[in-house]
Amino acid sequence: MRFSPSSSGRCLLGKEIREKMLDEFYTLFHEIENSLSLINFFLPYIPIPANRRRDAARIKLKEILSETVRSRKRYNQVEEDALQNLIDSKYKDGRSISEDEVTGLMIGLIFAGEHTNSLSSAWTGSYLLNDAKCLMTAIEEQKKIIKKFGRRIDYHVLLEMYTLDRCIKEALRLHPTAPMLLRKVHKHFTVWTKEGHEYEIPAGHTIVSPTVLNHYIPYIYKDPEVYDPERFGPGREEDKVGGKFSYTSFSGGRHACPGEAYGYMQMKVIWSYLLRNYELKLLSPFPKEEWRKFALKPQGKVMVSYKIRQLA
Length: 312
Ligand code: HEM
What we know:
By secondary structure, this protein is mainly α.
């Protein structure tokens, strides 16, 4: 399973790149993505081949983006896309942002928005296709929605997809794309655990909150190893049991993901379309996690077979 951006490419990168060099752009982006390993997270500049390819790809990406920026400025061309917003944005002191910063922010945005979404969609699909009961419940929901709204999918229709929402949320509980969240401690503070232990956290330290462990705490999540989307349903709402940080696939606090609602929309568009139009079967075994990568992606290829169909 591989999800690649297309129309989102125009909204983000602009029509020039979307029309002429989207493949090249994403091949370069994937070089950067491929270098993202746990080792690199702690030692980002070690001279290994993956880092050299990453650095060469970044230079090329900057050339492509800078050329687009210059061409727009040269012809006074203004477009409606995220790239234009970055070009036009200014610091508080009136300074424009540099081409290098535009490139860095763009790579950051693609990573934050596209990479996370494609991984989460792949995990959601793997769970759905591996669990006949959940798959049937998700298909039944689509049938009911088609009966109520016809075949159109828009914002309001997506909001009615509660089951699919929970299927995605549960896949992300078991496989959060960011396995740990890091924060720099600005002010000393004390933590008391449920068991009554006390920990002093000094200013200047970096603390790690391991989402990948927190989501398996058994007093919060019943049978945490089990894929059970209904644990988020009415009457259970297990993600509320341990307070507001029980579920942190989209992080929490000041730096919580601003793209969460949009991310759910995108994943629901993908999976409602697939469920409505294809009969899918998982051919490969259920994927293991690729632990060497920072974002928890499925190991190897997730293979599915498909037959075209239309849900009535
Ligand atoms: C399934 C989809 C997504 C997942 C799982 C996800 C996850 C996350 C997580 C865990 C963080 C916080 C990292 C931290 O606390 O250190 C984060 C931050 C962020 N996300 Fe997302 N995200 C998703 C989709 C998106 C989308 C679609 C966008 C934009 C369109 C986006 C934009 C951002 C940005 C800009 C930040 C940085 C926020 C800050 O540092 O203040 N994300 N995301």
